Input
Amino acid sequence: MTVLPTNLAVNQGAEPISDHIVAVLQRRILAGEIPIGAWLRHGALAEEFGVSRTPVREALRILHSQGVVTIDPHRGARVNGHSGKDIREIGAVRAELEGYAAELATERINDAQLKRMLDAWKGFGEAIQQLGASEGDQRTQAQRWADSNHEFHSVIVEASCNRQLALTIAELRRRLPHNLSYGAYADNSRLLRRNLQQHEGVAAAIVDHNPRLARKRMTAHLRASNEATARWVESNKTRN
Output
């Protein structure tokens, strides 16, 4: 059984409510829990998330701008979904940009950021050790994986000290959050361990002050992750 984290962001309280709703809906759509062609109703979503209709409307506007839904003023939003091609195209751009961020971070990362990066990598390993846990524990570990993944990538972008690069990557993450890849990994311990090794390789290159290798490894890691996600989405659409 695939156990996916509901809260896809670290420190949810610090992020806009609409962004949280976007992330959850994106994950459900990609997982096939919300099928292509389904209607998302403002009132039902507001009740589910315990919010007013304002952040729901903003979340649906964001998904509309990404092409994930089409808004009908009288009926709500109809789900289009991301295709495997969409994921590969967004992922290819993000991989190159985050590879550049890793290259810059190699020379600019400070001690506190370095510790955060290594702590995040350690969190990956501890989460993966609990793969055979009960469903409740799996949810806890899935959330820990998501938190560690978000922190690992975020601290590297932060350490690049390039504001324009960070803003561009943030926009791509809104369109295709990192943690959506967990659905492709959740039932495959081999892929999860490979993902852990890829993060370790990036961290090692940064610790060793090897910018070219850090860029190469980060780019390869994200390309592999996005390909796994694209295949998972295509598989879900075939089944549904």
